[in-house]
């Protein structure tokens, strides 16, 4: 799924190489394959949950999505760079919004804000 996952005290980063041999490429717009938006959202959520877990010291799952935007298509062969940040999340926080961004090179392709209940 994700590779090179790293976390700091306010951010997380990871990568994902989009293969042309996975099921989506064979059936999702067969003549013009596009990486499904739900799969992009799943990658961003996975990294956001990893960051929330890292920051609080407990396993955390997103409780909701505040917003999601798909800005540009992702195609087989693209390497996705996922980044998220949570500048005010800590062990004493009750709620948090973790912002995630998905890039292919310099091109922003998707973004989302995930909601967490940390109590």
UniProtKB/TrEMBL annotation:
InterPro entries: ApeI-like, HotDog_dom_sf. This is FabA-like domain-containing protein. It comes from the Bacteria. One of its GO terms (molecular function) is lyase activity. Gene3D superfamilies: Hotdog Thioesterase (3.10.129.10). Residues 18-86 form the ApeI dehydratase-like domain. It holds the Pfam family ApeI-like. Coiled coil: none annotated. It comes from Pontivivens marinum.
């Amino acid at each position: 799924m994700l590779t090179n996952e790293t976390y700091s005290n306010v951010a997380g980063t990871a990568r994902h190489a989009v293969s042309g041999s996975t099921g989506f490429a064979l059936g999702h717009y067969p003549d013009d394959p596009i990486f499904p938006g739900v799969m992009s959202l799943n990658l961003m959520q996975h990294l956001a949950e990893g960051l929330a877990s890292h920051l609080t010291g407990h396993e955390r799952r997103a409780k909701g999505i505040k917003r999601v935007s798909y800005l540009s298509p992702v195609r087989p062969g693209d390497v996705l760079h996922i980044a998220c940040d949570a500048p005010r999340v800590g062990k004493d926080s009750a709620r948090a919004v973790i912002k995630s961004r998905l890039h292919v090179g310099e091109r922003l392709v998707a973004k989302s804000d995930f909601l967490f209940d940390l109590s």
